[in-house]
Write a structure and sequence with these properties.
The chain has one domain: Electron Transport, Fmn-binding Protein, Chain A (Pnp Oxidase, Chain A, Roll). Helix content is 28%, strand content 29%. The chain has helices at residues 2-25, 101-108, 131-144, and strands spanning 47-48, 64-69, 77-86, 89-95, 111-116, 119-127, 156-163. The longest helix has 24 residues, at 2-25.
């Protein structure tokens, strides 16, 4: 019994050390496009931006962003997703939200961390429920990703990025 406790204790200590190391080094998601070939990560690493962003149109030249959500088990979950700037505001879009982990995390806790380039932004995501706004954002998305990504006909969940 004492040997078993020693083994379990050593495993717990190793897991804690691993999580502490990952917390400080980050573990960004792998891949630059959502879906196949892209793997989720944990904490995002980069330089935290605390100043407000008045115009997100600088993301027009950026294909995707990383988004870190908060899980119920207290270890972050980060993924790569689509970003769309519309009227100076930033939006995120995902297809298949019902089966993906990060939209479920956002539904429970809308506070997220975004990584754009090497910059981190703490923000809040709100699901876009206005049909006109949603359609306008999806039209901009269709122009931005016209040849490379799935058609607008797919079911997309659109999130508006608000300051935290």
């Amino acid at each position: 019994m004492k040997t078993l406790l020693n083994i379990v204790g050593a495993i717990v200590i190793c897991m804690v050390l691993l999580l502490v190391t990952l917390r400080f080094t980050g573990l960004n998601p792998h891949g630059d496009t959502p879906g196949r070939g892209s793997y989720p990560g944990l904490w995002l690493s980069g330089d935290l931006v605390t100043t407000p962003v008045a115009d997100w149109s600088f993301t027009d030249s950026i294909q995707t962003v990383k988004v870190q959500t908060n899980t119920w088990y207290l270890i972050p979950h980060s993924v790569t997703t689509w970003c769309i700037a519309y009227n100076g505001q930033l939006y995120l879009a995902t297809s298949g939200a019902a089966v993906r982990q990060w939209p479920r995390n956002v539904a429970r806790d809308p506070h997220v961390r975004l990584k754009i380039g090497d910059q981190l932004y703490d923000r809040t995501l709100l699901v876009v429920t206005d049909p006109a706004e949603r359609e306008a954002v999806l039209q901009v998305r269709a122009k931005k990703y016209s040849q490379k990504y799935p058609p607008v006909g797919q079911t997309f969940t659109v999130y508006h990025v608000k300051p935290s």
